Amino acid sequence: MKFWDASAIVPLLVAEAPTRRLQALAAKDSAMLVWWGSELECVSALARLERDGALSPQAITLALRRLRQLAAGWHEVDPGDAIREAAARFLRVHPLRAADALQLAAAFLASERRPASLEMVTLDDRLGTAARKEGFAVIDMAPAD
């Protein structure tokens, strides 16, 4: 099982450059571990695309349906004091936004504080860099040359 950041989930919902590579990765290992707030982060990203005119009303409806289907099958790391405390530490150590620090904290606690035991899938450069520094194996989804 891999920990999926919301930035890596959105391309599973709408066509983007990394969509095919992420679909292939998800097909190899369909068990997804996510932070409790990932679904909301995905809705936020989709709403931004809709507001910017990048998604039609039909496309947003389809993307939200796909999100519900994915969310019905993934495993969530629930919120709690330990995640909040770890996220606060990560905010002081790494140049992260709050939601990314919560993502990293959720992965950290899901790994039972042994980051090398859990792979992370993210397209967010800052989160990926912080995760690598913390000891996670970050799956590189950069475009192939």
What would you say this structure looks like, in words?
The chain is of the alpha/beta class and 145 residues long. 59% of the residues lie in helices and 11% in strands. It has a 5-stranded parallel β-sheet with strand order 3-2-1-4-5. Helix 7 links the parallel strand 4 (119-121) and strand 5. Helix 1 (6-13) packs across helix 2 and helix 1 (6-13) packs across helix 3. 34% of the residues are buried.
Features:
145 residues, alpha/beta, 5-stranded parallel sheet, 7 helices, 5 strands, 11% strand
Write a concise synopsis of the structure shown.
Strands 3-2-1-4-5 form a 5-stranded parallel sheet. The chain has helices at residues 6-13, 19-28, 38-51, 57-73, 81-93, 98-110, 125-134, and strands at residues 2-4, 32-35, 75-77, 119-121, 137-139.
Query: What structural class is derived from the secondary structure elements?
Result: alpha/beta
Sketch the major β-sheet: 5 strands, parallel
* Shape assignment: globular
Could you give the order of strands across the largest sheet? 3-2-1-4-5
Strand content: 5-15%
- Total helices: the number is 7
What's the β-strand tally?
Answer: 5
Roughly what is the average pLDDT, rounded to an integer? Answer: 95
Rg over CA atoms, rounded to whole Å, is 15 Å
Distance between the termini: 27 Å
Strand and helix order: EHHEHHEHHEHE
Query: How much helicity do the residues have?
Result: 55-70%
